[in-house]
Design a protein that fits this description.
This protein is an alpha/beta fold. The protein has 16 helices and 12 strands. The strands form 3 sheets. The chain has a 7-stranded mixed beta sheet with strand order 2-8-7-6-5-3-4, sandwiched between helices. Strands 9-12-11 form a 3-stranded antiparallel beta sheet, covered by helices on one side. Strands 1-10 form a two-stranded parallel sheet.
């Protein structure tokens, strides 16, 4: 009998990981079917409503044919101008026509830039722990991410040379460095000294830098510095921003990168052949969010800092069993449960946590060596629900320690 042959899939698709929560999905579904509540401390979102003017019903109250047709592939001039104006405050002069690429979220914008930068087999030094999608984005763009533990080391010893740490992992195929500041998942804010060190190596080695700065508005103890603002870095840096993080607009799916003109021109071609154009209504919402938003961002920053402090206090009784750095920015605590678990897998704790009604993100998604860590988002729910979620987590920890 004839056995049909099945065409193979691409090897690069095989390198892209499944969902962070794939292994836990059956337990989550079982809890939901049973009618149990779940406190969502696993997802990088916010409980805050976006700025008052940035609501879909406000920008689409009347029938407007422009919202239902194809839009400009370069995005609306109003949004590009607003993005350029805001970015120039951190980066220096930014031309909205030449230096801004708007995407369907920062995820898409970064991918378009990466696809324009890398050929198959090019290596990118990916500072870890890292945002899980960054690893998949690089693979999807044809590059090979090389994980380099960085921010966890800098938390332990701020005198370390960040550039030297990255350079030690370089090979002749290294083309770029990918850094996140403030970092997702551990909240580390790279200092000017750290960034100057990375910049020196990038200039000497002729590397690109992908600077993921989606949490730049949310730093607590120190100021944010953009590596593109340093001498000689604007022409070799891709700086990413996201309205999901800056303005509580995750559902709008709008983000952007600022980069040199030649890179933006190439990345726009990738964007055209992936989504064609970002939905016009989403672009209008994003542009509206940036009008008189300073007070909103300041209030959000204060709220997030209070939430971070509340989370740290709520976890204080368990500090003998866990390790974590007090996040300097962003939305997360990255908790090491190795002392509690011993040689047991993290999945044991996360399953018990689901049974108790709270979700955390498993640490193996954030890089090798973090298999007994988990990310806790302290901005995803209001303060009372956050404290309830951490109380549930502590109950799960007690279950595991029995």
């Amino acid at each position: 009998m004839y056995a049909a042959r099945v065409p193979v899939l691409s090897s690069s698709a095989g390198e892209i990981r499944a969902s962070v929560f794939a292994d836990l999905a059956p337990h989550i579904e079982a809890r939901t079917r049973a009618g149990g509540t779940l406190v969502p401390l696993h997802i990088g979102d916010t409980h805050l409503a976006p700025p008052e003017g940035a609501r879909f019903e406000r920008v689409a109250r009347e029938l407007d044919p422009a919202l239902y047709g194809y839009g400009a592939i370069t995005s609306t001039p109003e949004l590009r101008a607003a993005c350029a104006a805001r970015a120039s405050e951190r980066l220096g002069a930014v031309d909205p026509a030449k230096n801004v690429l708007v995407g369907c979220g920062a995820t898409h914008a970064i991918f378009c830039a990466a696809r324009a930068l890398f050929d198959a087999g090019d290596e990118v030094l990916l500072a870890s722990p890292y945002w899980p999608l960054s690893h998949g984005i690089l693979h999807a763009a044809g590059a090979r991410p090389i994980e380099v533990p960085l921010t966890n080391r800098l938390y332990r010893d701020s005198s370390l040379d960040a550039g030297a740490i990255l350079e030690a992992a370089a090979t002749p195929r290294t083309r770029a460095v990918y850094v996140i500041t403030p970092n997702n998942p551990d909240g580390k804010v790279l200092s000017r000294r750290d960034l100057e060190s990375i910049a020196r190596v990038a200039r000497a080695r002729d590397w690109w830098v992908i600077a993921d700065e989606v949490y730049a508005d949310y730093t607590y103890e120190r100021s944010h510095v953009s590596i593109a603002s340093l001498d000689g870095m604007a022409e070799r840096t891709v700086t990413a921003s996201s309205f999901s993080k800056s303005h509580a607009l995750a559902g709008a799916r709008v983000g952007y990168v600022v980069a040199p003109e030649r890179l933006v021109a190439a990345a726009r071609k990738v964007s055209t052949h992936t989504v064609f154009n970002v939905p016009v209504v989403a672009q209008r919402v994003a542009a509206a969010a940036m009008i008189e938003d300073r007070a909103w961002i300041a209030d959000a920053r204060a709220s997030y800092r209070e939430a971070r402090d509340a989370a740290v206090r709520a976890l204080a009784p368990e500090r003998a069993q866990i390790d974590f750095a007090e996040a300097e920015g962003g939305s997360y605590l990255f908790i090491d449960f190795a002392k509690l678990l011993g040689h047991r897998p993290l999945k044991l704790l996360l399953e018990r946590a689901i049974a108790r009604g709270v979700l955390l993100a498993p640490g193996d998604a954030f890089g090798a060596g973090f298999e007994r860590c988990a990310r806790l988002c302290f901005t995803s729910v209001p303060r009372a629900e956050l404290e309830d979620g951490i109380a549930r987590l502590r109950e799960a920890m007690a279950d595991v320690s029995l």
